Each structure stands twice: as structure tokens, then as C-alpha cells.
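User: Second chain of the day. Same drill as before.
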Amino acid sequence: MSNYQIITDSGCDLPQSMISNFDIRVQPLLVNFRGETLNDSVDAGIREFYAGLRAGDVATTSAINPEGWKDAIEPSLKEGKDALVITFSSGLSTTYQSAVIAADELQETYPQRKIRVVDSLAASLGQGLLMHYVCAKRDAGMELDALAAWVEENRLKLCHWFTVDDLMFLKRGGRVSAATALVGTMLQIKPVLHVDEEGHLISMAKSRGRKASILALAAKLKEAGMQNDVAYICHGDCLEDAEYLAKYLKENCGVKEVFIGYTGAVIGSHSGPGTLALFYLGNNR
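Assistant: Same format as last time:
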């Protein structure tokens, strides 16, 4: 058994079953929805959440503050364990910066313990797939410092490609202009987006129609190549599209193992229903 605890946040969009199997601690970001402040989740109430977005409900989100991170990290330190904290991309949230502040404060209280904070530069099940590899290396006996270094050396090989069904959600978040969203919606233009090397969301291409945008995700995988035959797919309550993509990857791209999960409430608040994303370990982003 390792002498350190791996801690991440709900930006990873992993279901509780996988969190338990990975033996990690996950601190939730917050989503404000229908007058309530709720913990981010892909489990309880996620389909109702997307139904609400489709009906016109608006959700806002909050990052984890330093106190929230201290609540997540300190129990392990009290148990005599070190901590490896891997956070949601600093290009999309202040969560990483808050984790660094919390770690610095806790280090003064627990000077005998190691606390390492690493920016994943990843999001959603891209961050989740990173946890898949991290936990496998921990279980194989990799020490904390070596594992933190491995994440920093390999995080930019975690490829993130996705498309959205409704441009208006990206417009609200300032990712596309109002004119682009309106024209794109009228012409059924579906953007193909990417998380870049600084962890920011950028638009890379446009497809005409939903099926073309789904196949464009698979084409990106073929272009980049894979270092492993495992892919993760997340969706904003569009399981049929996710299953179509998974089947295509297995039949045409040499992918052997695909995990499909929901896009969580925090990320889904900004990307909207119908979001479809593909993640895999490639040669580079």
C-alpha cells in the first residue's frame, strides 16, 4: 500500500464507482442550479440537470476555494500520509491556484509531510483518464515524487477533442460570439473543439451536421495516433451518440477499450446538453 493519498476534484467527471475502485479522494466543485448550491456530480440527478438546461434553466458554477482544498487534503496528513493533488486545468478554473494556496498553508502545519500539487491541464474525462494512468502507476509502486513528475511530463499527451450540439451555451461562456452562435445554429454548424497545451478551450474546426462532427472526433484520433488502446468518452445526456462513437472507434480506429460517462454538472453548465468528448493518450495534444 502506498504511503500517500491521491486527491483530485470533480472536474475529472468520474462516477463514484470508479472513484472507489481507484481509491482516490475527490473534492467537488459547486454548481448553482434552481436556487440551490449543489456539489458537482455525474451520479445523482445528472439527467434531471440536463433536462433542466434543455428547458431553459441556467446554471452557474464555483471553483474550489483554499478552505475547500484544506478540507480535502488535511485528513490524509492527520493520518500520517503524504498527498498528491492533481487538479482541474488552470486554463479553465482557479481551482489549481486555490490548491497551491491550501498546500502552502498546510505545509506549515505539517512540515514532516509531503504535499505535491500538479495542474492536470486537463478537464472532464481527460482528467479522469489521467487518473486511470496515475492510479495504475501508484499501484505498481511508483513513489509520490516520481508520480508527480510523470504527470507533468505526460499531461500534454492527454488528447481532448469534443463537439457541442448547442452553440448558445458556448456563447454564454464567451467562447463564441453571438453572431457566430446564431449563424451556426441556423446552418447546423457544429464546432470541433480542443483543450490546448495551456489547458484552454479553443475551436479547431467546423462540421456541417451532428454526424459529421462525431466522425471528426474519430478522425482527430487517427491523425494523432494513440499510445494505448484505451479511450474515454463523455456526453451531455446524449448516450446514443456516445455509443455510436465508441462503436466506430472499435471498428475503425483500433481502440479496444472504451469507457463512456456523463459530462458533469459544472462542465455541462458551460458546454450544454449534447456535448460529446473524446479523450485518449496520444503522442501530443
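Residues 124-139 form the longest helix (16 residues).

User: Great, on to the next one.
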